[in-house]
From TrEMBL:
<protein>
    <recommendedName>
        <fullName>DUF6760 domain-containing protein</fullName>
    </recommendedName>
</protein>
<dbReference type="InterPro" id="IPR046648">
    <property type="entry name" value="DUF6760"/>
</dbReference>
<dbReference type="Pfam" id="PF20546">
    <property type="entry name" value="DUF6760"/>
</dbReference>
<feature type="domain" description="DUF6760">
    <location>
        <begin position="5"/>
        <end position="53"/>
    </location>
</feature>
Length: 57
């Protein structure tokens, strides 16, 4: 079994917690693949907002 780098895990948890205001323990309970899907979805939302506003938020 390969360990997931702890720095990357902390980045993902912080990213999801910041954007969705979820609790740390709830995020950590997500399966790795599901957590990555949420990270990707947040990135898509942010990209769409950036494109729609011309970079202004």
């Amino acid at each position: 079994m390969t360990r997931y780098p702890s720095d990357r895990l902390h980045e993902e948890v912080a990213y999801v917690a910041f954007h969705f205001h979820w609790q740390r323990d709830d995020i950590l309970r997500l399966e790795h693949r599901e957590r990555q899907r949420w990270v990707a979805e947040i990135a898509r939302i942010n990209q769409r907002i950036t494109e729609q506003t011309g970079g202004r938020r």
